[in-house]
Design brief:
Strands 4, 5, 7, 8 and 9 form a five-stranded antiparallel β-sheet that branches. Strands 1, 2, 3 and 6 form a four-stranded antiparallel β-sheet that branches. The protein has a single domain, classed as Immunoglobulin-like. The chain has no helices and nine strands. The protein is 0% helix and 58% strand. By secondary structure, it is mainly beta. β2 and β3 form a beta hairpin.
């Protein structure tokens, strides 16, 4: 007799809303990203934000008490015109990346 064990895959999703909100006058300007992490089960999810100008270093954790969506935010302060992108990277329990959220800060004279 052979026993079959089925292991259900964890479904995680990382989403960044488009476009980010840009406020301020370039001294500084604030680029505010919002999004959410979606999980099909309860548990801890560790994540970070990767930027176009440097790799991510800080990690954060959200606790899902049940399946669903939890909001996340990230602010990038800039002191002049700039463009770039941010990615929401889910680190564990599995690796998942959002698409890049691009932005451009224009400073008037």
């Amino acid at each position: 007799m052979t026993a079959t064990i089925l292991i259900a895959a964890l479904a995680l999703k990382a989403v960044i809303d488009q476009p980010p909100a840009i406020t301020g006058n370039c001294h500084p300007a604030r680029v505010h990203f919002t999004g959410h992490i979606e999980s099909d089960r309860a548990g801890l999810v560790k994540y970070s934000w990767a930027r176009s100008d440097k790799p991510s270093t800080a990690t954060f954790t959200v606790n899902f008490t049940a399946p669903g969506k939890l909001p996340v935010t990230y602010d990038w302060m800039l002191k002049g015109p700039a463009d770039g992108w941010v990615v929401l990277h889910l680190i564990s329990p599995e690796s998942v990346h959002s698409p890049k959220a691009r932005f451009e800060v224009k400073c008037g004279r």
